[in-house]
Amino acid sequence: MSTTTSHAATTALDVARIRQNFPALHQQVHGKPLAYLDNAASAQTPVQVIDAIRGFYERDRANVHRGVHELSQRATHSYEQARVKVQRFLNAAQLEEIIYVRGATEGINLVASSWGQANIKAGDEILVSAMEHHSNIVPWQMLCERTGAKLRVIPMNQQGELLLDEYAALLSERVKLVAINHVSNALGTINPVKQMIAQAHAVGAVTMIDGAQAAPHVKVDVCDLDADFYVFSGHKVYGPTGIGVLYGKRALLEAMAPYQGGGDMIAYVSFEKTTYNELPYKFEAGTPNIADAIGLGAAVDYALSVGMDNIAAYEAELLDYATEQVSAIDGIRLIGTAKHKASVLSFLIGDVHAHDAGTILDREGIAVRAGHHCAQPVMDFFSIPATTRASFAFYNTREEVDALCRGIVKVKELFG
Amino acid sequence: MSELRDLYQELIIDHSKKPRNFREMEDANHEADGFNPLCGDKLHLYMKVDDEGIIRDVSFKGSGCAISTSSASIMTSMLKNQSLDQARSMFEMFHHMVTRPEEELDPAHAGIGLGKMAVFAGVNEFPARVKCATLAWHTMKNAIEDAHEPAKTE
Predict the structure, then answer these.
(1) Are A29 and A365 in contact (CB under 8 A)?
(2) What would the CATH number be for the domain defined by A50-305?
């Protein structure tokens, strides 16, 4: 196999130094050095994020937006500063357009519930793509069941690229919403969302972009994309679990009813009538996830300090290398061979089931995802039950790719 | 590699590649589905039980990993001509073997009375895979109890 040993990346990243920021990477699993290649499921967290969370708990722990005391003011300041950092990360025009949620899934459900209930009626159409994660299918199916609207699917080809002619043909005045992912979690395809958003707008449709797999790997600029709604999850951008972001254009968010009622989302409450708070607090009922919002702020700052262009360039090189090395092994079938891809290498090893491959790779210290990746329609499209998926981050190395290849050879030996 | 060989023994690999009794059965009088939605493993089990409560024929269809496929294959080959009571006690033995904590492992008695089932003893060391090994057995239990819900072990 590979004779490659050590590589200085041609891009500007000092990966050895970056790896020092990620404590979880430096451990042995089953007696082997860990190769963490399951970043599309959840990425690792740098010390900068862990320190930010620890700082909140050790110094500033208090509720936000309530107390006149010093700790509450510090907590509020950090919580709101994190929002500024997220605004910068997405290049959102206004701070009020950044809503904290639990993750991409909750952001989509918020829009399906609040915007969907008011704007979707029987006979309307909602377009999703053939490569969506379940979280960008099921909330819209539920909305269709409630309203009598129809869910239609933008098809893809065998490489895992959306058929843009078919998309254009599906667009009509009946289409009220187009919900697509920016990057596919199962296939790694980078979809041409800017162009697709413009086409949707041309027929008056609103767009929801699931950026869960894009935000960690490519520069996201919601203004340039002209996205109406954009969601991502903190734990995939090197931040904590349990926090994510819904971006929405101000005019849309202003017109939407609150998603949940409670404290913080009100301006004035009486038993006769409640006046809702202004954006973004209208959508943040109850005590929010303060610590993890602060951690998310530190995470996006960290990513920006490394540089999204640097991350994208390094990962593109690493993915090219992995694609070349893995596909050189006899009996490998790659699933997802789009021209534009990010971070994901999904494959089959002969007729070995992905769960067996996953177990064997785990014993070699290699963490991958084995399964349908919460994208069963994608598996059905390729007539397969599951794939083994290696997904990369900017702290992964060619040596880890080589370890993956050696692991795949072991899988083949065992099932020989 | 040795631990992996404990899990993926030759017999398991063989049954996963060439599953026995892998066919539909038109005159089955007990059937059940097994489905682990997170894994995607699914199987349909067919049984023909006579008036005396003896399993005259048993077969399955479905798809899954090597552990779940070979478990179903080996199970079907062992159940033929057993009584329903024997099938229930084999279920208990199998279940105990793959789920018991390590401190309860008694090498002196390991494998006794288990027959070919004993090849799954290694699953014990792989907690994430216990659900794969037990799916067929839970499905069998549902089939003889005529349960309507699919069996799940996740």
Answers:
(1) yes
(2) 3.40.640.10
- H-run or E-run covering A309: helix A308-327
Residues A15-33+307-415, CATH architecture? Alpha-Beta Complex (3.90)
Closest partner residue to B132 (CB to CB) among A355, A386, A415 is A355
* pLDDT band, residue A401 (cuts 50/70/90): very high
For residue A403, the surrounding DSSP H or E stretch is helix A398-415
Q: Is ipTM beyond 0.90?
A: no
Q: At CB < 8 Å, which residues of chain B contact A?
A: 1, 3-5, 7-8, 13, 38-41, 63-67, 69, 126, 128-129, 132
Closest by Cα among A392, A339, A405 to A9: A392
Domains of chain B: 2-144 (3.90.1010.10)
What is the tally of helices (H) and strands (E) in chain B?
Answer: 5, 3
- At residue A65, the pLDDT reads 86
CA dist., res. B117 & res. B121, Å (int): 8
What pLDDT is recorded for position B110? 53
- Establish whether the linkage from the previous residue to A280 is cis, with ω within 30° of 0: yes
A134 touches chain B (CB under 8 A): no
Question: Looking at the partner chain, which of A352, A359, A385 has a beta carbon nearest the beta carbon of B129?
Answer: A359
Q: Is there a catalytic annotation at residue A374? A: yes
For chain A, domain boundaries: 15-33+307-415, 50-305
Closest B-chain CA to A374: B38
Q: Name chain B contacts of A359, Cβ cutoff 8 Å.
A: 4, 7, 126, 128-129
Predicted local confidence at residue B103, as pLDDT = 58
What average pLDDT does this structure show over A144-172? 98
- Distance, in Å, from the CA atom of A284 to the CA atom of A100, rounded to the nearest integer, reads 7
Q: Do A353 and B3 touch (CB under 8 A)?
A: no
